[in-house]
Amino acid sequence: LMESEGVTFDDLRETVRSFGNVSVHVMGDTIVDSYTYCTLISSGMAKSPTLSLRHDRQVDFVGGAAVGSKHIRKAGAKVRLSTVLGDDDFKDLVLHDLEEQGITCDCVIDPTRPTTQKNVFIEGAYRVLKVDKVDNTEISERIRDHLKNSIVESQVDAFVFSDFRHGIFSHRTIPEFTACLPEGPLRVADSQVASRWGNILEFQGFDLITPNEREARFALGDQDSVVRPLALNLFNKAHCRLLILKLGPRGIITYRSGSQSDPRAFFTVDSFAGNVVDAVGSGDALIAYATLVLTASKSEVMASILGSMAAAVACENEGNTPVEPEKVLERLDMTEKQTHYL
């Protein structure tokens, strides 16, 4: 693939090192991902089948749209995040974390809702239970107007809409926010929907969308097609410039604008992940690095490769830890060495 596109490993390295010239505005739902580690005391009490766990410790990670911003900032780019938080302790955690990372935060505090928290209880190697603290009510008109103004006033190279369907994005608000996007900057959208319904096809005409296979099948109402025609159908209906369809351990398939008769109109990239520890949040790393690459180099192939490598690095760490560009460069070096043995 790289040879056919005239892309070298040095090109990939140079692109990673060029992110300092890029500015990105991210908008979306912030989530605090909590990992509560427990020890099993009893698998069933004497009088009821109740699972009994001893609380050992809890670790809180700032996730959702915020971790996407952290990936971008860690890569060296300038970031502005627009989001909505509750008036609670998790708000303070998020704001402190973003300030430490050097991210400009345009946060609306809504005292009527909590800061979204997803708390997973872990016993040994098993995730026993997940408890969400969330209000999925659509944001108020006042907050919508504030977010729309933040888009209009922003002068950046790329906009990223990070949709988790926890109040900011909905069937009604997406057209309003999209209409505010200026001509010129890259338009990127991701609709990571686990417990909520969402539809990536609501983000029409974007430069890059990055759904996973489940989200693609939901958007198209298609549970039967094999992956290639599924991706092509989604690509055509989304009217996007670039589609990166995430396939988990099978890697990605990318469709890009151009003649569909061109054999290079689509291509696949295998997963670079080795020891997968925690795949949650890898999609945020992929979209962050793919956005930066597209902005810096315009190369769909390099965006797919470096986005996949960033996702692989994220998979090999527990929790939402921003991916360092040095780790991506290490993965590049390792991959280049491996090619000498093929």
Overview of this protein structure:
This protein is α/β, with parallel strands linked by helices and 342 residues long. It is 36% helix and 26% strand. It contains eleven helices and 13 strands. It has helices at residues 2-5, 9-16, 65-74, 89-101, 141-153, 173-180, 213-220, 227-238, 282-297, 300-315, 325-339, and strands at residues 23-28, 30-42, 52-64, 78-85, 104-109, 117-123, 126-133, 158-163, 186-191, 208-209, 242-246, 252-256, 266-269. The strands form two sheets. The chain has a nine-stranded mixed β-sheet, with helices on both faces. α2 packs antiparallel against α11 (325-339) and α10 (300-315) crosses α11 (325-339). The longest helix has 16 residues, at 282-297. It starts with a helix and ends with a helix.
Given helix and strand content, the structural type is: alpha/beta
Strand content: 25-35%
Low-confidence stretches: none
Q: SSE order in H/E notation?
A: HHEEEHEHEEEHEHEEHHEEEHHH
Q: Separation of termini?
A: 14 Å
Name the average pLDDT.
93
| Spatial strand sequence of the major β-sheet | 5-4-1-8-9-10-11-12-13
Radius of gyration: 20 Å
Number of helices: 11
Shape descriptor: globular
Give me the count of strands: 13
Measured as a percent range, the helix fraction is: 25-40%
Q: Tell me about the biggest sheet?
A: 9 strands, mixed
What structural keywords apply?
26% strand; 342 residues; four-stranded mixed sheet; 11 helices; single chain; alpha/beta; nine-stranded mixed sheet; 13 strands
